[in-house]
C-alpha cells in the first residue's frame, strides 16, 4: 500500500467497521442508541466478511474490493433505495431514525465504491510492482557488470 488514498480509505473502512460494531453491540444489549442495524444477524455476519475484505484490500487484491462492494451493496444499497423512495413519496412527517439510517446507508455505499475505484485506478497494484527509485540498483545487471569491469582495470602499483 504505497498510496496515501489507499491508507485513508482503509482508515475510513476501519472507522466505519468499528462504528458498525458499536451499533450491533448497542442493539444486542437493548440500549437506546440513535442508530439501529437493519438486520442483527446479517450485521454480525457482515462484520466478519468486512474484516476479511479489509485484509484483502490492504494486500491490494481487487477481489477484496469486489466482495466488499457486493456485501455492502446488498446490505446498505437496498435500504438506501427503499429509504430514498420512502422519503420522496411520503406525505407525512418522517422520523429522525429514517434519516439517520439513510445517511449511514449512504456512507456504507460510498466507501466501497471509493475503494473499488482506488484499486482499479492504481497502476502499481500488481504482485511485483516496479519501483523506479530502487530498481536501478537492485535489478540492473548492466550496472553491476560496469562496476566489475571498472574495478578490474584499476591496476595500482604498490611500492
Strands, helices and their partners?
Layout lengths: L3 H25 L11 H19 L3 H28 L6 H26 L10 H7 L2 H13 L6
Largest sheet at a glance?
none
What amount of the residues lies in strands? under 5%
Supply the number of helical segments. Answer: 6
Domain unit count: 1
Query: What is the average of the pLDDT values?
Result: 83
Structural class: mainly alpha
Report the radius of gyration as a whole number of Å. Answer: 26 Å
User: Which word captures the global form?
Assistant: elongated
Poorly predicted runs are none
Distance N to C terminus: 56 Å
Relative helix content: over 70%
Helix/strand order, N-terminal first: HHHHHH
Number of strands: 0
Notes on the structure:
The structure is a single chain. α2 (40-58) packs across α3 and α3 packs antiparallel against α4 (96-121). The chain has one domain. The chain is built from six helices and no strands. It is an all-alpha fold and 159 residues long. It has helices spanning 4-28, 40-58, 62-89, 96-121, 132-138, 141-153.
